[in-house]
Design goal:
Elements lengths: L1 E12 L2 E13 L4 E5 L6 H8 L7 E6 L2 E2 L5 H11 E4 L11 H11 L4 H14 L15 H14 L4 E5 L7 H14 L4 E5 L3 H4 L5 E6 L2 E7 L19 H13 L2 H34 L13 E6 L7 H8 L4 E5 L8 E5 L5 E8 L9 E2 L7 E6 L6 H6 L5 E5 L6 E14 L9 E5 L1 H14 L2 E6 L2 E5 L8 E3 L7 E5 L15 E7 L4 E12 L4 H5 L10 E3 L1 H8 L6 E5 L5 H10 L2 E5 L8 H32 L4 H9 L4 H31 L6 H9 L2 H26 L4 H5 L4
Parallel strand pairs: 3-8, 3-9, 6-7, 7-8, 14-19, 16-18, 22-26, 23-25
Antiparallel strand pairs: 1-2, 1-4, 4-5, 9-10, 11-27, 11-28, 12-27, 13-14, 13-17, 15-18, 16-19, 17-18, 20-21, 20-24, 23-26, 24-25
């Protein structure tokens, strides 16, 4: 029946190899009642797991009915367990939330029995183990002996030729143990029964063969009684669980543990309502945009411009830009297009200060009035009104005036980006007297990106377990830079000493946290020095009165917070007539597009809000997905043993995964249904909840369909993600807590 030839099992843990057992040779036949004994750690249970297909082996060969198994995959071993093995576990491995009947029924459901054929068989088995009056009792309320009888009945339900029992009397009193062993001995007349035990004397009078193990090897294999045995076993024919029974089992699992169901329902209800509210709010913002007036947030309102971002909300890559450049009708791409609509400041560190909008030199149109076009990366031209106070002096010194980017938040001058003004184009003074236009190379634009990231970021300081907000207008906890501060360190006001019980904040950690629509970043520093009005000048070169409370860090650390890839870019087309065709091509390539020309008759603010609202919605969905996943992962942690048990009983990974998916999808459908019911009650004014009214006002039938699909897909992906982690290991590893 079963034959092992020089079979060995090894375990690998952190580079260390441990032996489970080594060079085992055994032949086990139907009709034998075999006891495997030995001290703890001798390899008994490991051998049992290999024999029953719950664990693999590394050396030798195991034969089943003369067929080799060394090539078996996990699916092959699942098939082997279903055909041949009935397990009785030391810890019973019963589903505590199921009744006695349901525990025995479970193995029959998994093996393809139809509902109408199950009842009679289950009742017969329950009577056989003398538990009929407990048939509708949850096993959590049974004694140890009664639980073991349920486990035996469950093993018998499969009608497999082999019964494997690991310490079946280990948790039982003397009377219950005697009863269990006697029952197993009766079973052994037409089956192969293999028991692992520490207490051989307890079962000695029943066994037909004794195997003793020591240090992973068999040191004794003794026949106790002659038996009628056969080397050939009949395979059990089985089918997969029917679709209707999968649904029944999924529904049972949904509601059988009330606490688990309530927690999952709350989580899914939160996810559903949050996404509905955000989606409704985005629809509201779009509506307000549609009815609003002119656009003033897109300072660069070129009719050739299309704003793009990736639909998956990830940053652009070089491959993305190369793909876009290969399209027809593309004039140029501004990778950091936020610079087109936001101000920067340039200074020569003396009298010159230019405040304007940065653009790519590729987008410069017209002729230079003074000077020449740039030839090198660090050369720039400006578009300026001729009557600016500095313009005449600047025109005289073109090519000899070095300017630097000045941080609008900190006032810090970035000397790592020296630029030379080589050309000037005069603006029409009859038009609105506004900012300058500064044309720079793409390389310079890329280096300016961090300022825009900063502008849309929320900056928080964590010190001594308290959070403080940082902004440009208040010196307290404002972030400033100084080359004098070492990398990884911070200089802070002496006032912070009062926040520390010891009276000294030196060497204390201080964390800067950045949060915006695109990314989050953290920077942990250590306070190296504190400044006062007497030493601030020597430490960082600034005045005390305007800067007390500021946190000074090294520019390199500061740039780590804000120097990030581009999440939004702009495409400028050559022919405006083909603008919409180009937009459609970009959409087909996976980009969300906004044609600026379409926004000019609406409120620019509303349009930007709509764009950011879309980003927020996507970001919220992604965030909610991961929050929901991690919470569900915690809630379902206790269910790992249930799904491991299913696989031990013969369920495939596929079936186990389907049952998990059914369970979570049922909860999500209930959460969605309850949400819709509440919305209907609000619409009928039966209840009055203001935050739901936005959903009532702005969502249509098609929106509810879209939202339902989004939520179901999210729930399905969450189920798949959890199932992938849960079922990546063998059932025995999962059961032992390795998930």
């Amino acid at each position: 029946m079963l034959e092992l030839k020089n079979v060995s099992k090894f375990y690998y843990n952190k580079g260390v190899i441990a032996t489970g057992f080594s060079k085992v040779n055994l032949k086990l036949d139907i009709g034998e009642f075999i006891a495997i004994t030995g001290e703890s750690g001798s390899g008994k249970s490991t051998l049992l797991n290999v024999i029953s297909g719950l664990d693999t082996y590394e050396e030798g060969e195991m034969y089943v009915n003369g067929k080799e198994t060394s090539h078996y995959s996990e699916k092959d071993f699942e098939d082997f367990r279903r055909k041949y093995i009935g397990n009785i576990f030391q810890t019973f491995n019963l589903v505590n939330s199921y009744t006695v009947y349901q525990n025995i029924e479970l193995v029959l459901l998994l093996n393809g029995y139809k509902k109408r054929k199950i009842k009679k068989k289950v009742i017969e088995l329950i009577k056989k183990v003398d538990l009929y009056k407990f048939r509708n009792t949850k096993v959590s309320k049974l004694s140890g002996g009664q639980k073991q009888r349920v486990a035996i009945a469950r093993a018998l339900a499969k009608e497999t030729p082999i019964i494997i029992a690991d310490e079946p009397t280990g948790n039982l009193d003397k009377e219950a143990a005697e009863s269990t062993i006697k029952l197993l001995s009766e079973i052994a007349k037409d089956k192969l029964v293999v028991i692992v035990t520490h207490n051989y004397e307890q079962i000695e009078k029943y066994v037909t063969r004794k195997i003793t193990m020591h240090d992973g090897r068999i040191i004794e294999d003794k026949k106790i009684k002659e038996t009628k045995s056969t080397a050939k076993a009949n395979e059990v024919e089985y089918k997969n669980i029917t679709k209707i029974n999968r649904l029944r089992l999924g529904i049972r699992n949904t509601f059988n543990i009330k606490t688990k169901f309530i927690l999952l329902f709350i989580v899914f209800l939160f996810m559903t309502s949050a996404i509905m509210a955000q989606y409704a709010n985005s629809r509201k913002q779009k509506h307000l945009s549609d009815i609003d007036g002119s656009n003033y947030l897109f300072r660069n309102s070129s009719e050739n411009r299309i704003v793009i971002k990736k639909k998956d909300n990830t940053p652009f890559s070089a491959e993305n830009y190369a793909q876009i450049e290969n399209l027809n009708n593309i004039d140029y791409i501004v990778k950091d297009d936020a610079l087109l609509d936001n101000e920067i400041s340039l200074t020569d560190k003396k009298y010159l200060s230019i405040y304007g909008n940065a653009s790519s030199i590729k987008g410069f149109k017209g002729n230079i009035d003074v000077g020449r076009m740039p030839e090198n990366d660090n050369e720039v031209i400006i578009e300026e009104y001729e009557d600016r106070y500095y313009i005449k002096e600047l025109a005289k010194n073109l090519g000899n005036t070095t300017i630097y980017l000045m941080d609008l938040y900190t006032g810090t001058i970035n000397e790592k980006i020296p630029m030379q003004i080589v050309g000037i184009k005069y603006m029409d003074s009859s038009l609105y007297y506004g900012n300058s236009n500064i044309y720079v190379s793409d390389n310079i634009l890329n280096q300016m990106r961090f300022q825009i990231n900063q502008r849309y970021s929320k900056i928080k300081i964590l010190f001594q377990n308290k959070y403080y907000e940082s902004n440009i207008y208040n010196p307290y906890f404002r972030i400033k830079t100084s080359e004098n501060v070492p990398v990884g360190k911070a200089y802070v006001s002496n006032d912070l000493n009062y926040e520390v019980p010891s009276g000294s904040c030196k060497n204390k950690p201080i964390k800067i946290e950045i949060d915006n629509l695109y990314y989050k970043e953290e920077l942990e520093l250590k306070i190296a020095r504190t400044y006062t009005k007497y030493n601030i000048k020597s430490l960082v070169g600034e005045e005390y009165e305007m800067n007390n409370g500021s946190i000074y860090i090294n520019p390199e650390d500061y740039n780590k917070l804000f120097d990030k890839p581009s999440y939004q870019s702009s495409v400028f087309v050559e022919e405006v007539e083909l603008l919409r065709d180009t937009g459609a091509e970009l959409e087909n390539l996976g980009y969300t597009t906004l044609i600026i020309k379409d926004t000019l008759t609406k409120s620019g603010q509303a349009q930007v809000v709509e764009i950011f609202q879309t980003i927020v919605t996507i970001f919220l969905i992604i965030t909610l997905f991961f929050i929901t996943y991690f919470i569900i992962k915690v809630i379902l942690k206790s269910r790992n043993t249930y799904f491991a048990t299913l696989r031990m009983l013969g369920a495939t990974r596929k079936i186990s995964k389907q049952l998990l998916i059914i369970e979570l999808l049922i909860v999500e459908n209930l959460a969605y249904l309850i949400s819709v019911v509440v919305i209907i009650l609000q619409a009928k004014q039966i209840i009055n909840l203001s935050f739901i009214q936005t959903i009532v006002d702005y969502l249509k039938i098609k929106d509810y369909i879209i939202l339902y699909i989004i939520l179901i897909v999210m729930s399905y992906i969450i189920s798949l993600k959890y199932a992938k982690k849960l079922f990546k290991n063998s059932s025995i590893k999962t059961y032992n807590g390795e998930v």
